[in-house]
Amino acid sequence: MESGTLSSALEREHREIDEGIETFVEGLAEGGEDTTPLKRAMEGLRRHIYLEEEFLFPPLREAGMMAPVFVMLREHGEIWQTMDRLDAEMGKGVAADPLRGLCAELLGRLEQHNSKEEPIIYPQADAVLTPEATDHLQSFIASGRIPEGWVCQRAQA
């Protein structure tokens, strides 16, 4: 896979998000209380879900990938709900066991989700999106921000 493809940029974001969560969990194991890596990872994950739902999934649906996109949206909702629970738990302070458990749950959900998204959705994104749509999405990946208050489609489901 070319390093400049859309799929490679999206996969890189997956790795960065996972690494942030893992760094936080490692810090907890060492008695640390710095939630910064986890907060950054979750901010990145929310942004990543936004870019997929707003820029990537609509053209893929139009190209006939309705069922795979539906699965991704459902899983985004489950991931989002797990992040909401992590936010609530962090609001109570840094209690290692509950946070470690929720981080393990989130990493498990991400592993299941990404193992489908990377080989099925992302190659189609490289094939289906117009050059203009690809450029727009890559620009967002480079510097875009999630709108204030945006919530993924299935967060409440």
UniProtKB/TrEMBL annotation:
Gene3D superfamilies attached to this UniProt entry: nmb1532 protein domain like
UniProt xrefs under InterPro entries: Hemerythrin-like
Domain of life the protein comes from: Bacteria
Domain Hemerythrin-like: start-end pairs: 7-125
Record's protein name: Hemerythrin domain-containing protein
Species for this entry: Sphaerimonospora cavernae
